[in-house]
Each structure stands twice: as structure tokens, then as C-alpha cells.
Automatic annotation (TrEMBL):
GO terms for cellular component: cytosol. PROSITE patterns: HTH_RRF2_2. GO terms for molecular function: DNA-binding transcription factor activity. Pfam families: Rrf2. InterPro entries: ArsR-like_HTH (IPR011991), Tscrpt_reg_Rrf2 (IPR000944), WH-like_DNA-bd_sf (IPR036388), WH_DNA-bd_sf (IPR036390). This is Rrf2 family transcriptional regulator. It comes from the Bacteria.
Length: 159
């Protein structure tokens, strides 16, 4: 039986991706409260992730009575990797601590001039994972949902 191992992402990544899909269909800025209501999530927690998206230049906040968030680029130009990095950062998932140089099994320095097999495998997996995420855009994600229904909901005033 094959085991599936996944990179660990925060829940904020899911929230941010859903918000980006909604914003890709909005004809005007969408307030944080509306995005939170649409997804049934905490406005305060969602605001933190929207701020991360804004710092990364993926969304832009607008102020005023009709303020909210808009995408800064076309949905075809924003990748899932862009959102993951905006919310969770760019640090690698695996950090080699060179354990092979420690303890009674310590390898001699001449055997540690290049990355060990474990570090190479992990780096390759991360590279493949990032390549996969960079190949999917917000527009691609939007193609998987009922956009007509979403546009109708966005056009419906909040109570």
C-alpha cells in the first residue's frame, strides 16, 4: 500500500485561495466581512491572511464605504504557489541539520562535502511540489466551481 505524504500547509492557505477565487469574479471590491460571511469563517482571522496577500502584492485593499479587496493581477497571472508563499512564507519544508555529522555514526568531513541522499531527495520533492503549485492559477481554480452561482451571490446585497 502506497503512503501519500503531503507538504503541511496552514488553514490560512485554503482560506486565501478561496478568497482569491471569489475576488477573481467580483466586479467591485469585496469587504473582509463579506468574504468571511461567504465562507463561514472568522473575519479577524481572515483579515490577517488578506493582509498577507496584500503585503505580497496579490490583492489591494480599498478604503471607504464601498471598500474591500481586489486582485492586483489577472487570475491567470496568480499561481497557487504565489498564495502559499504569501500566507505561509518561502522557507523550505525540510531543513537539513546535518545529523550525519553527529553522534557515534558521524561521517568524516570528507564524506560531507555535498548534500546527503536524504537532503537531495527532500529538495527534489520540494522542487516538484513547488513546480506543481506554480502550474495552477487562480483562474484554473475558478474553472472548477460554479462561477455563475458565485457571480449571483456576489451581486446579492448583504443584509
Amino acid at each position: 500500500m502506497d503512503r501519500v505524504v503531503a507538504m503541511k500547509l496552514s488553514g490560512g492557505v485554503e482560506w486565501a485561495l478561496h478568497c482569491c477565487v471569489v475576488l477573481s469574479q467580483a466586479e467591485s471590491p469585496v469587504p473582509t466581512a463579506r468574504l468571511a460571511e461567504l465562507h463561514g469563517v472568522s473575519k479577524t482571522y481572515l483579515a490577517k491572511h488578506l493582509q498577507s496577500l496584500a503585503r505580497a502584492g496579490l490583492v489591494h485593499p480599498t478604503e471607504g464605504r464601498d471598500g474591500g479587496y481586489v486582485l492586483t493581477r489577472a487570475p491567470e497571472a496568480i499561481t497557487v504557489l504565489d498564495v502559499v508563499q504569501a500566507v505561509d512564507g518561502t522557507e523550505p519544508a525540510f531543513r537539513c541539520t546535518e545529523i550525519r555529522r553527529q553522534g557515534v555514526l558521524a561521517a568524516p568531513p570528507e564524506q560531507c562535502r555535498s548534500a546527503c541522499g536524504i537532503a537531495k531527495v527532500m529538495a527534489g520533492a520540494e522542487q516538484a511540489w513547488r513546480a506543481s503549485l506554480s502550474g495552477v492559477t487562480i483562474a484554473d481554480l475558478g474553472a472548477t466551481i460554479d462561477l455563475a452561482g458565485l457571480k449571483h451571490i456576489l451581486a446579492t446585497p448583504t443584509t
